[in-house]
Structure formats: structure tokens, C-alpha cells
Batch of 2 targets.
Target 1
Amino acid sequence: MFQKILIANRGEIALRVLRACKELGIQTVVVHSTADSDAMHVRLADESVCIGPPPSRESYLNIHQIVAACEITGADAVHPGYGFLSENAKFADILAAHNITFIGPSGDHIRIMGDKIEAKRTAKRLGIPVVPGSDGAISDDKEAKRVAAEIGYPVIIKASAGGGGRGMKVAHTEADLEVALQTAKSEAGAAFGDDAVYIEKYLEKPRHIEVQVFGDGAGRGVHFGERDCSLQRRHQKVWEEANSPALNAEERSRIGDICAKAIADLGYSGAGTIEFLYENGEFYFIEMNTRLQVEHPVTEAITGIDLVHEQIRVASGAGLSVRQEDIKFNGHAIECRINAEDPRTFAPSPGTITHFHTPGGLGIRVDSGVYSGYKIPPYYDSLIGKLIVHGRNRVECMMRLRRALDEFVVDGIKTTLPLFRDLVGNPDIANGDYDIHWLEKYLAKGE
Ligand code: ADP
């Protein structure tokens, strides 16, 4: 097992990882920017190293500084959290070259899944169902028209190097296609320095369903069930659930088994999430994230398994603590992402939190790095905490969530708490009846 882990992140996830390390008796080092000297993870860690000024590229994305911090403190492993360097293959390779363990998959696996065309090709080869579309990048308009006619309109054009929902264009007819292709290519070129695009069938009312997987790096793969993250705004997840209200037990184990087998065949190591769009009983692979996800606590709530412990175990060579048959799904969990934003306009609302009171009681978990008197720096993303609620079934979970939201107090800044108080009382949400466009439509109506 590791002696000392360096946590290369900030905010709630740095604290989340720190807690797992403490439980496992591992010493912790955190790195931080000058803007985060007062952060909770800095206060609670055994050691901390200031690695640079507030802008992320000079601190949390600064590989040299982070490697130097490992050398100075004698850390033998790095946990990257999510975001920042968590899916940076070069970072994983550099750490390996310094004999420091990256708590995540190999640089090669990160690279494959970071290229959307390569990822889709790999998924297909591994028996994962994919969205019908072009086999790789589109070379010209003629090929695009041929593929689109074959799969049927509407189609979506996506950037191979894409991310964050950028470089995507929908075409409803052949007449739309040329323009969509040109726009997608130039957007992709500008945003990612690579104008390769591919084409796929556009699904009109899908849900976003993702499967949590783990590989032990020695040919074993398991799945921890799925999460439904269909409630999104601008492709950003807002509310996540486990299990999905849309799946039955047969679909759950079918897609879970496919993913677990794929992970085993790939020889993958560590945590991963295989993301699908789901429509009319069918799953369509969209991408794989090779890291821990923001929404992992809903999976922990229904399985009772600490996924960060598992990440650390696997990276240290101790293997997974569970076999597939040990993973049981118990009840229902929902996570609300609480952002320091105006609940209507979503404009960021940094500033000082004058009072912070979190709900408690059975089935409630709050993962947050903030506290009363904490000043939110304006440099980073606006997530200030996650409320995760568990109940024996979805109805009980929703009752408890409503109560927990009433109890939650964040004064001094605007937060998205009022949005969740509205959502929890909405009949479609109560019925679990929503697709990936539901939230945007709801917000547009301004109800
Ligand atoms: P990114 O990596 O940029 O986030 P994804 O491939 O994960 O791109 O897609 C982001 C979102 O775009 C999906 O969650 C979904 O809302 C939408 N999307 C992607 N592909 C399709 C498709 N074939 N049909 C309909 N919507 C899609």
C-alpha cells in the first residue's frame, strides 16, 4: 500500500479523496494555488505545497510543479480527482517515468478514450453498442451524404477531438448537411486544433445513462450499475440518480455485463465510466471517462462501496475488494450539484459565504469543501457542494431530498438550491419521466 498520496485537485473532490486516504491510514499531501490557501483540504491535509498563482494553468495544471511537489514531499502516488489533469495521458506517463503511481488507468488507455473516433472504434470492437454512423472521420461532403442517407436523418456531426459539447452540429435534411459539416469542422479546428469530424444518427429523446466500471489491471472487470444523468443544462449534469428510473433489472444487468466484460478484455485498470444515450430500450455508446466522476457518490450510496478506496487499492496492486457477485444494489440515491450561481440565469456568484448549514439525518451526505466565512475564489468552477440522498426506494429518496433541501442554508451568495427545490416538486421529476432535453425546456419556460 502507498505511504503518502499527493492530491492534485481542489474543492470538494480534494476533500473526498483526503477522507479516503485518512481511512486507509495513508499520509496526505495537497497542492494548492495562492487563491486556495484557506481551503478546507489544505487545512486538513498532513502536508501542503503551494504550487503557483490562481490561474489553473499555472497551478493545478502545472505538471512540473506537481511532480516537484511529489519529489519534495516523497509522495509515492498521485490522485488527480476529476477535471484538471485527471484525463491527461502525458501527466500519467510523466509520473510513471518518475516512479510515482498515477491513481488511474495507463496513459495509453487515457489516450484511446480521449480520441472520440478511436474510443468509438474500440468500444465497437469490445462488443459495446454504439450509435450508427461513419466508421471514423468523414473525408468529404460526398461521404457525409452517403453515410447520412444510410443511417437516416437527423444526423449529428461531432468533433473527433471534442469535449464539453463543443463542435457538434445537427442536420435534419441533406440541405442542412453541408453547412453543418463546414461549421462543425471550423469550430473543431478553432477549439481543438484538429478539424476531424465524424457523423452519427441524432437521437431525439434519449436519456443519458452511464455505467460505473472498474478494472483491476489484471484482466478482471466489474460494474457497479448505472447512473441516470439526463437532467443537464448545456451538457452539464445537474441532477444524477442511481438506479435509472428508466431501466428494468434485465436491461441493467445486460448493459452492466457488456461493460464489465469490455473492461476486462481491455485490461483496463482503475475506475471508469462508460456513457450511453438510451432510447427505446437501446443503448448507444457516446464516450468513456477514464477517471472518477463528480456523481460517483450515488453509486456509493446504493452499493455501500467506497469507490476511492477501490481506486487506491487497484493502483497499489492490492486488487479490487469485491467480485461482481458481491456488488448488490440497495435502494435509490439522488445527487444535486449545488453551484455558486444564480438559479435562473446561472451567472457565477463568487463571494463570501456568510453562513453555511448542511442538512443531516439518515440517508443524507453532503460533500463540500466550503464553510461559513469561506470566500469563493472567482477562478475555478462554481460547484460548492453536492447533496446526496439515499432512500429504500425512489419515493422515500424524494421525500428525504425535499426535507434536506429545506434544511440547507447557504447565505451571502446565490446558489442553485432554489432550482432543486422546484425540481423536487415537479410531477415529471417525481415520475422519473424526463430525457436529456427536459431541463432546458423547463428552464426556457421559466416556470
Ligand atoms: P462531449 O465529449 O463534447 O461532452 P459527447 O459525445 O459526450 O460529447 O456528447 C455530449 C452530449 O451531446 C450528449 O450528452 C448528448 O446530449 C448530445 N449528443 C451526443 N451525441 C448525440 C447523438 N448521437 N444524438 C443526440 N444527442 C447527442
Target 2
Amino acid sequence: MGKKSELASEYEHILKIDKNCFDMADKFCEGYKSFMNSSKTERECTNTIIDIVKSKGYKEFNKDIKELNAGEKYFINNRGKAVVLITIGKEPIDKGVNFVISHIDSPRLDLKPNPLYESDDISYFKTHYYGGIKKYQWPTVPLSMHGRIFKTDGSYVDINLGEKESEPKFMITDLLPHLAEEQNKRTLREGIKGEELNIVIGSMPITDEDTEIKDLVKENVLRILNKMYGIKEKDFARAEIEFVPASKAMDIGFDKSMIAAYGQDDKVCAYTSLMAEIENVNPEKTSVSVFTDKEEIGSKGNTGMDSNYVSDIIEDLADIMNVKSRNIYRNSICLSSDVNSAYDPTFADAFEKRNSSHINKGVVLTKYTGHAGKGGSNDASAETMAKIIKLMEDSNVVWQIGELGKVDIGGGGTIAKYISQKNIDTIDVGVAVLSMHAPYEITSKLDIYHTYLAYKAFLLNK
Ligand code: MN
Ligand code: MN
């Protein structure tokens, strides 16, 4: 018998298996970082994706197209907040489609519809957080302002302020430790409360003589906003404004092996699948890559995966190609491209090490998510796992398995359950992330690169 077991196996660091891939990964991640910097919100990410694919020859799809031919590439913009990319395959479409679906919304602070106020000569915005955040992480982080606001005349203005060095940033305050005796008694969940997530936006009053205006600092902010964007206070009711961390994506570690950036859940899977989709030329099977919205609040709304927008597009394809959409679904496979919680040695108690994903050990295949007894989970079949693992191994993609954490310690879900309800074999495939849902999340460049290789192998698969 040999020194090593021929039967047992362990998941290993990518560099033990693919020794020379760091340079490729590092180069790949330069594109990723610039994608992240121009895609902080779902609207901006939609614009970035559409700009990229237009430059690669994708045409806008519409249901009145009479004929679809192998090799043609299309994009569909769903309300400026989600994108669908289609590459027509050589095989009849009812033999099945390769779906890759990621989400491009991330946890953040949205403005309330009547957000502007002044308190003791400081002006603030009231926020309502979006998605699962640990509220105490958001004070004293530089924030930038993004979104769209409509005016009385029906025109709108897109706002992106605080991303450039020269532009102002915004910030939520926290209480100094010297005076935090009472605050320190709060639980971590209550350390900062939802109604304390108030963003500081100004401190200078107007200096008009004889004015009857009471809130002089607020008035000054309104005048600045009016000058910059032509908006008035009521216009916040017809707006979607999001505040997100203002810093750019950055390398982490002496070895620059990792990246910290806002919103890597799930734009790390969006970027890797986008690059794979673009390079998916003349495939056998038709591919449909979706970059969806609203995952972080349960996939509801007509830009989320619990709506019919993707299945309506499949209906359109089926109509044009004169096939039945149900035959497309039952023969399709979907990679629900979402991140997994990486094992964190500092918080080892929350994880079951053997079944957690680890940074640098490759693309994560997550069989199931859910709460307690797998509640609310898709739970991919052994057949689907076998198919995807074989594909990874045949394509030299380094892969690992992952659960969300210890049983009964919490839980979560992805869009997998909304896809599989359409009778599609579905499995979660994505990148391991440290500090998920924090203002800055950490990923490994090697994992990002191998996740891109995984999506590419899947799309080019016959
Ligand atoms: Mn996610
Ligand atoms: Mn998430």
C-alpha cells in the first residue's frame, strides 16, 4: 500500500493543483475590479453589462424577431435593473438551455421617501436598509450616493456622487466610546438601530437676511441639490436612491491574493459569468445568462427571479422557434451563480469545517442552502451534482463543496428555488466570500478565476 490513501480525499489549495495560475487570475481580476467600481448598484451594473456586451456585438432582443440562428447573441434590459443575455446554440432549443443566473443587487442603505431633515443645525437623510446587514458595521464608513430621481415634469436625473476623489462623501455617526456605557449594554443586533442609520449630509445654514425659514441647514442642502440636479424635496418620493460604501475595490494581503470590495455578493458571480457568456461562441446548447435584481430581499418584484420576466423571455424564444417552453425547461440545467460563506478561522464556531467552503480551494458547489432541516432549499439531486462535478473535473476546474454554516445556527437562500420550480435541474455554484454582506467583502483571486473557468466549461459543454 502507498503512503497516501487512494480512497480518502481532501479539498486542497488551488495552487497545489493548478500551480501556475496566479498570474492569469491576477490579470483577470484587474477587469473585475474596474467592473466593480462602475457597478455599485443594480442600475449601474445593468448599464455596465449592456455597454460591455454591445461592444461585443450583442443585439437587443425583441419578441417580434422572426428567426433566430445559431451563434447570434442578444441582450434584454429589464427596466434598467436586470439583464438577460442569450446566445443561440446549434441544437434545437427544446433539447435544453444552459442557464447561469447571478444577482446584481447587494445589501445597502436606501433613502426613505421623505428623507431630508435637520436636527440641531446638522442636516441628515433618513434611510431604510435593504437586505441583510449587520447595522453596527455601517456608521463611520464613507458612503456615496447613487440612483435615479424624477422631477415634476417627468424628466429624471441619475445620481452618482462620492465615487470620485474630488467629490464629497457622506457618513453615519457613532457614539464615542467615552460615552457608550449604555450603548455597550445593547446586544450587537441593537448596537446601532435601524432608525439610527441617519446619514450626515450638511452643516452650513443659509445666511439670508430676514428669512422665515426655520431649518436653515436643510434649506442650504435643498438649494445645493436643486442647483446640482434641479430637484425639490417632494421629488424624493419619486426616486430610488441608494447609499453604498464609497471606496474602490482593493487588493488585500502582502501577497495581493485577495480582493476587498463592496457588493461582491453577488457581482463576483455576475462578472465571472458575464466573461464566460461573452466567450461562449457558437455553442451547441443555447445559453441564457441572467443578471437579476431583488435577490437580497427575497427575489420579489418584477425585476426579481420570483417574477415571470425570465420565463416570459423563454416563452418568446419558444414562440419564435416553434417549440414548447415546457420542453425547454425540463431539459435545461441552471447554475444558480451565487456566493457561499467562506470558513472564517476567527469565527470557527459558526462553521462545520469539513463541509464549509474555504477561500482558495476553488469554485463552490453548494448542494443545498436553507434553514434548519434544509427548509426552503432547492437541494440539488445526486444526478445534477454528478453531472456538474464530472464537468469540473473534465475541464480541470478546481472545485469544492460548501454548506452555509453549522446546522441550526442560521441559514439563507439563493434564487435556486425559484429556478427549480420551473422544472429545471438547478445547483448553486459560486465564489467563497469572507465577511459576506459587510460594507467590504473579501474574496480570493484564484477562486474568482476558477469560478470563471467553471462557468465557461458549463456553457461550452455539449
Ligand atoms: Mn447572493
Ligand atoms: Mn446576499
